[in-house]
Amino acid sequence: MAFNAETADRIRAASALFSEEFLEKKMFGGIAFLHKGKMTIGVVKEDLVVRVVDNKMDSILKKDYVRPMDFTGKPMKEFIFVSAKGFGTEEQLMQWMELGLEHAKTKL
Questions:
Q1: Which domains does the chain have, with CATH numbers?
Q2: How does pLDDT run along the chain (108 residues), one tens digit per residue?
């Protein structure tokens, strides 16, 4: 599996600050963190993968260090990549986790 283990550890530590439970699963050649079976956030290589509710995608994609997730050459619906500079602080990481959790809760 190719993912930044330090980023995964940061997500594990930050998940303790949430009242929701997160489970880990190997996905996309990396690791994903799921809430009640729904993906929230993950790590692939050096990037975060974040699920985003559809009505926020346009504004989120305008942010620095964010790009569509496109394994096949076609962007995946409601998935983004965030490069390392976009989650350098714990506050930034928590914001991405909250966004991913918001998506998961809409799918329950």
A1: 5-106 (3.90.1150.30)
A2: 589 999 999 999 999 999 999 999 999 999 999 999 999 999 999 999 999 999 999 999 999 999 999 978 899 999 999 999 999 999 999 999 999 999 999 999
Whether the predicted model's global pTM rises above the 0.90 cut = yes
Decide if 24 contacts 61 (C-beta within 8 A).
no
Q: Whole-angstrom Cα distance, residue 75 to residue 26?
A: 21
Closest to 22 (Cα-Cα) out of 2, 9, 5, 40: 40
Burial of 76 (0-12, 13-18, 19+ CB in 10 A): middle
